[in-house]
Design brief:
Structural class: alpha/beta
CATH topology of the largest domain: Rossmann fold
Radius of gyration: 50 Å
Distance between the termini: 107 Å
Number of strands: 21
CATH architecture of the largest domain: 3-Layer(aba) Sandwich
CATH class of the largest domain: Alpha Beta
């Protein structure tokens, strides 16, 4: 990539913003060294790592590399036999601990089914060396002191040192507390000079306290004396201190040796941890920008009519506050975009937004745009964008721009994007316009994509008539005399000079004379552009209204769906309640039948039996009155039931053949049984269901099952055909009702009942 173009498009500022999200120096260095990839596979991997890291932050928002540092310099020192300071050893242990925690979190997420191939590959490079980590923590305190437990010799030496120190101080305190030396002592304190404990003595009484003078006060009135009696004790204490320092050094060298033994693993761990933290930084930066993962394409793989650059509602990542998004499509049928419009209208921002988002995407960063964004992988991005927004440019500025463009034209190709601000400005308008058209022709011939801004009217017509070139403009609000910063693709910018001058107070006479001198074709073009813009605004308003109505319709449909689900839930609950109540009533009925059987067996006379039967019938009628009817929703349109039809008896859950229909009831053959049921309790079936009949009585419909005759049937005086029909129906109904016994009363006539 062209370094000058990267600076022109402010890519280093994006890198600085990204680096603020890193956690330690190694990942910060990776961020600051970031540059756009030019290989399609590398861009895809970098984008995937960012996407995976955003997923990790969503699943484990607390994840971090807290405590990690770039310990590679300390490892290098250990590898050449140097001593690693205690605090540096603690940092190594903390880094190994952070790496171990990071590895376990990421691999655990992978184990539970999250697809994290790129970040998982980084995590697998994190080495766990608990023996080194534990050895450091057991030898160094949190304050950076080597612990007594670091080695047996060190513990023993320190114990002896403390004993020698206590004896030395005890002797010196005895001198201070002795009345013998009270007159000679300047101040009753024990202090230290040149590493030796001393007592301040008045210079006039020097002879009173024999010893070694180690220092004198500034006035000469005080001498700092080490009493002779403490010299041997002091020497012993200093000797033990020296042995302690030697043992501490030996311990540190031993720890450094253990670090050196796993030096390659630690270096790779730091490198992998930096890569993971850098990837998480990209994810945090993307979240801060509300960015999305763009589709990454190779321009050569796209159909000719498909744009390689598609940026819906793109935002410049460095702008703060209210940012007007820009929608841009480039490539495919239109490879060059010519943007016109007023100064400070947003042309340059649109230009930089396109270039910067291409660079961000190729660096593995998500881009601030709406879903559906598409960006290509390019080898070169060139930008010639001046900081000055005035159309009055000096010759030196023109020469500088031309020099930049000349360098670009030598290298551009199909894998290039060229961004040119104020193309052809700074010279004679006629020559500048001709030069601008020639440059665009050259870029078209080379097959590259380009975006250029201009003020030249001639370029509007050129873009309209030249294949592969498209007009665009930044919108201007004539009411407020300010730009809206909206980029209008397909519509060239209008000249607003006269209208602006009029609104700013220019005399009408001057405006009128100026309008007379404007060429008729220019006026017609402006009027046509105004008409087109009005029509586009109206269409946009209609689309917005349609979108709003669609959204309201969607919300209503969603509300209706939820209400329907709730109604279905309530209906199902009510059906369940009704079924439970019916089954409870049926169970009660069974108990009463059992009681009836026992009472009938005990009944001594006909009169008692009749009373029991009558009481039971009354109870059955009461249960029938309270029992809920069948709960069902017919699936088909009503069908007239006729003899020969196959029907489903809803109360029984069984299918049978209709034998006859009369008085709102149907006689149905159910296997070997016949039953007469209400037409309301049957459902027509085009074909036999083929389903096995349920055997449990709990599914019987109570109203159907309980519409039974009395406990006896009187057939006296009836003909044989009547007896046959009534007896069959009575026995079927009694059986289906679960009656334990019935009484058949017949006469002593012709013996017709025996024949039945």
């Amino acid at each position: 990539m062209n370094e000058k173009s990267l600076r022109t498009l402010e890519f280093p500022k994006v890198i600085t913003a990204l680096s603020a999200h890193t956690s330690f120096s190694a990942s910060h260095d990776l961020a600051m060294d970031l540059s756009p990839h030019t290989q399609h596979a590398a861009v895809l991997r970098a984008q995937a790592a960012t996407t995976e890291s955003r997923r990790i932050l969503e699943l484990r928002p607390e994840i971090s590399t807290a405590g990690a540092r770039d310990v590679r310099p300390s490892v290098a020192r250990a590898e050449v036999g140097g001593i690693v300071e205690p605090l540096d050893l603690l940092v190594i242990a903390a880094t190994l601990s952070a790496a171990r925690a990071m590895r376990r979190i990421i691999l655990k997420l992978r184990e539970v089914g999250h697809d994290l191939p790129e970040v998982s590959a980084m995590a697998l490079r994190l080495h766990e060396v608990p023996e080194v980590e534990d050895r450091i923590r057991s030898s160094i305190s949190e304050r950076g002191d080597v612990l007594d437990s670091a080695s047996p010799a060190l513990g023993r030496i320190r114990s002896e040192t403390r004993t020698a120190h206590d004896r030395l101080l005890q002797y010196l305190r005895s001198i201070l507390n002795s009345g013998t030396y009270a007159q000679a002592i300047q101040e009753p304190i024990i202090t230290m000079r040149e590493g030796r404990y001393v007592i301040p003595v008045k210079s006039d009484f020097r002879a009173r306290l024999p010893g070694l003078v180690h220092d004198t006060s500034g006035s000469g009135a005080t001498l700092f004396v080490e009493p002779l009696g403490s010299v041997d004790a002091g020497n012993r204490w200093r000797e033990l201190q020296g042995r302690e320092a030697e043992e501490v050094e030996r311990v540190l060298l031993e720890l450094a040796g253990q670090v050196a033994d796993v030096g390659p693993a630690i270096r790779e761990t730091v490198s992998a941890l930096a890569s993971i933290d850098f990837s998480l930084a990209k994810a945090r930066y993307a979240n801060a920008l509300r960015a999305i993962a763009p589709e990454i394409v190779a321009p050569s793989d796209l159909p000719r009519n498909e744009p390689a650059i598609r940026l819906p509602q793109a935002r410049h990542p460095l702008l703060r506050g209210r940012v007007v998004p820009t929608t841009v499509e480039l490539g495919g049928p239109f490879r060059v975009l010519v943007v016109t419009g007023p100064n400070t209208g947003g042309k340059t921002v649109a230009l930089k937004t396109v270039g910067l988002l291409v660079l961000m995407a190729q660096s593995g960063l998500h881009v601030p745009a709406l879903p559906g964004a598409r960006l290509p992988v390019l080898r070169h991005v060139y930008a010639d964008i001046g900081d000055e927004q005035s159309i009055e440019q000096s010759l030196s500025t023109f020469s500088s721009h031309i020099s930049n463009i000349v360098g670009m034209l030598k290298e551009v190709g199909p894998d290039s994007l060229v961004l040119l601000d104020e193309l052809g400005a700074g010279t004679d308008p006629e020559e500048g316009s001709a030069l601008a058209r020639a440059i665009i022709d050259f870029l078209l011939d080379r097959g590259c994509m380009a975006v250029g801004t201009t003020h030249y009217t001639e370029l509007k017509s050129y873009a309209h008539t030249t294949p592969g070139v498209r007009n665009a403009s930044v919108e201007f609000d004539e009411e407020t005399l300010s730009p809206t910063y909206r980029l209008m693709i397909g519509l060239p910018g209008r000249s607003n000079a006269l209208s602006i001058a009029g609104r700013l107070g220019m005399p009408e006479e001057v405006i009128a004379r100026a309008q007379e001198r404007v060429r008729p074709e220019s006026r017609e073009l402006n009027d046509l552009l105004q008409q087109i813009q009005d029509e586009r605004d109206a269409a946009s308003a209609r689309r917005a209204l349609a979108d709003q109505e669609r959204e309201e319709t969607r919300k209503l449909m969603e509300r209706a769906r939820r209400e329907l689900q709730e109604a279905e839930r309530r209906r199902s609950h009510a059906a369940d309640e009704g079924r439970r109540e019916a089954e409870a009533e049926l169970e009660e009925f069974r108990k009463e039948l059992a009681n009836l059987r026992r009472e009938l067996q005990r009944a001594p006379a006909q009169q008692g039996t009749t009373e029991v039967v009558q009481a039971t019938e009354n109870r059955l009628r009461e249960i029938t009155r309270r029992s809920p009817g069948p709960r069902h929703i017919p699936k088909d349109a009503p069908h007239e039931i006729t003899p020969g039809d196959t029907v489903l008896v809803l109360g029984l859950g069984s299918s049978g053949k209709v034998l006859s229909v009369q008085d709102g009831t149907a006689e149905v053959q159910l296997g070997r049984l016949k039953s007469r049921v209400s037409l309301r309790d049957v459902q027509f079936q085009a074909e036999p269901s083929g389903q096995p009949e349920p055997t449990g009585r709990s599914r019987y419909n109570l109203e159907s099952s309980l519409s039974t005759p009395s406990m006896e049937l009187d057939l006296r005086g009836k003909r044989a055909e009547e007896v046959s029909r009534e007896l069959d129906r009575y026995i079927d109904d009694a059986y289906l009702s679960g009656m334990p016994l019935v009484r058949i009363i017949h006469g002593k006539g012709t013996g017709a009942l025996r024949q039945v």
